[in-house]
Amino acid sequence: MASSLRKPLIAGNWKxxxxxxxxxxxxxxxxxxxxxxxxxxxxxxxxTALSVVAEVxxxxxxxxxxxxxxxxxxxxxxxxxxxxxxxxxxxQMTLIAHSERRRLFHETDENVNKKLKAAxxxxxxxxxCVGETLxxxxxxxxxxxxxxxxxxxxxxxAPAALAPLVxxxxxxxxxxxxxxxxxxxxxxxxxxxxxxxxxxxxxxxASGLRILYGxxxxxxxxxxxxxxxxxxxxxxxxxxxxxxxxxxxxxxxxPAGAKR
Length: 260
Ligand code: PGA
Prior knowledge:
Blueprint: E1 9-13, H1 20-33, E2 40-44, H2 50-57, E3 63-66, H3 83-88, E4 93-96, H4 99-104, H5 109-122, E5 125-130, H6 134-138, H7 142-153, E6 166-169, H8 183-201, H9 203-208, E7 210-214, H10 222-226, E8 233-236, H11 245-250
Bound molecules: 2-phosphoglycolic acid.
2-phosphoglycolic acid (PGA) binds near residues 176, 217, 235 and 236.
């Protein structure tokens, strides 16, 4: 289901890295390196750096995102950050349910659902992360896990509300391990995600939905991953911290005869 309607999106997830000075330097390099990129570009910076990175990216097409949010608008939630605060600091996007949050910080599908609602209410574009662990893949449970994460996470929305949503397929076994999913494995999972979304909320929405691949994306493998018809972009962790490698990922090149 290739679609030229789906503008590719390459996003860097900086995780818990970088000082303010390092964040500013990297944001400048990403901004400069994004000129004439084939798709959209975004960076998900740590909360501490959002304000300075927003300043660097002002007026540029590079979009800024947070890595998580709380579902309430305000209140006594020490240590948390709301969607409105994220928007106020200059973000257009936010990650939700990264596997590190699911695995290390007990993120549940019920909370993911509330976070999605909060992001939409604030006008943020959420990138909902889904993906299976190695044990789940080896037990042939990949599709079941993806289905549950999608059904529970996306429960109860009016289809129109979901229009801005982006999904990131990030197999947990591929994150930070150097073990990338093969292009065929990525395509198979992305197609399953798109079909599940079509069943839940209709073909029209699902065919325009952008699904990013994440998990050990590098300058060496980005082109073949992006050539898959249902891979609409990449969510890049480790390799997004290094220039010029990340610039090469942003400037991916589709091999001749690619289907998308
Ligand atoms: P990685 O991380 O590229 O370092 O594997 C991807 C992610 O966690 O989003």
